[in-house]
Request: fold
Amino acid sequence: MPEARYLRSALVTSLAAGLVVAQAPDLDEGASLGARLSVQSANPVVAELVLRPTAGFASVRVEASNDAGGPRELCRFAPVLAGQVYRCAVQGRIGSDQNAYVIGVGGVATLQGREVVLARRQFAIPNPGYDRDRAQAQDARDLQRKGRLSTSPSTPPASAR
Reply:
């Protein structure tokens, strides 16, 4: 694959120059991961992520970014070999105030002792019950309760009076 050759070439050049690349999103936007998502149910989320990478990685991480408590690792594969098939079962719930369940996949290499993301891909499973207008109204009510939003545009906030 031309992307994989370019990716390896850029890594060799970076290593030879003594540089540590923090992230290289312009090199690979996930094509080399060969990721496909098959959704059986939207809420609760039941899906299967299948990876068939065209390049090798030290590891590949699959995370759900909108679960309560922050990102949650769903699967981790290490090492990942080109041409092999890797499967990850995905299960979760979408909050009523969330418009989608987001799954992130990252292909990682270790360079000079640091983990570096070389390829990334995101999937979004839409929330079938999401009501944008209701969610925005709830956000406005929450802000009013916290005192961050004045009750009318002409009334200055209490701190300015």
